[in-house]
Amino acid sequence: MMSEERNKILEELRQHSEKEFDKLLVYLNSGALVISLAFVENIIPFENASALICLKCSWILFGLSLTIVLLSHKSATASMKYELINKKKISDTLDNLTKILNNLSFISFIMGLFIFIYFILKNV
Q1: Nearest-CA neighbor of 36 among 56, 22, 64?
Q2: Rounded to whole angstroms, how far apart are CA atoms 38 and 72?
Q3: What radius of gyration, in Å, describes the C-alpha atoms of the chain?
Q4: DSSP state of 86
Q5: pLDDT tens-digit profile of 62-82?
Q6: What is the pTM (predicted TM-score) of this model?
Q7: Is the pLDDT of residue 1 over 70?
């Protein structure tokens, strides 16, 4: 009995952590886009910036990461829907898709961040 309660608590914590991770990625991506726009507008004029391709790539990656987070949310809710109607195989497939999308979103954000930092270093 103790082990079942422990597992239930751990599963609830894992689910809460994943939900918070999605929110954190949205906040970080949105913030990175705003900061990068402000940086170009106020610190380095767009006309004088070098390595503009890096800035554009970082914007694309931040936007891609945000889009993937939205897709991840949709696949997670679909997975829960199928779990409720006892379609375990479909639910498990969608759950795996959600995990893949979360990882891709994280990777896109990190890549965008590193590319933006490179852009900053080239222009400061």
Answers
A1: 56
A2: 29
A3: 19
A4: T
A5: 999 999 999 998 998 898 888
A6: 0.83
A7: no
Q: For residue 59, what are its two tokens?
A: 């914007």
Say how far apart CA 97 and CA 116 lie, in whole Å.
28
Q: How is residue 54 annotated by DSSP?
A: H
98 within 8 A of 69, measured Cβ to Cβ = no
Contacts of 59 (CB under 8 A, 6+ apart): 33, 36, 112
The whole-angstrom distance between residue 87's C-alpha and the CA centroid of its chain comes to: 27
**pLDDT number for residue 121:** 93
CA angle 68, 72, 75 (to 5 degrees): 135
The phi, psi pair for 96, rounded to 5°, reads -65, -40
For residue 83, give both structure tokens: 């779990």
The Cα 25–Cα 57 span in angstroms is 18
Amino acid, res. 97? L
In terms of Cα–Cα distance, which of 31, 36, 100, 25 is closest to 66? 25
